[in-house]
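(Fold this chain)
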Amino acid sequence: MNQFNQNPELPENQAARLALIGAAITTLGDGISAVAAALALQELENANNQSSRSQSDQSKQLERMQRQIDRLSNQISKMDRKK
């Protein structure tokens, strides 16, 4: 009932409240950005690790293939000598 007797909020108080809300939203946004950057960095590290493993696997496979080629070449040489 005393609605008309209440003092309206001062503009400075409204501005201070809005500034506080804005700062809180900005801080939340910065936190989300930091989490996103950390996730992106983690994904890049995972991709690099997978790439390294893939290169290592390919290198091992090439070594196996080279040994097979060497064995086959030796067998062919032995067969040619027997003729």
The chain is about 85% helix and 0% strand. The chain has a mean pLDDT of 87. The chain has one domain: 10-82. Residues 33 and 39 are 10 Å apart (CA to CA).
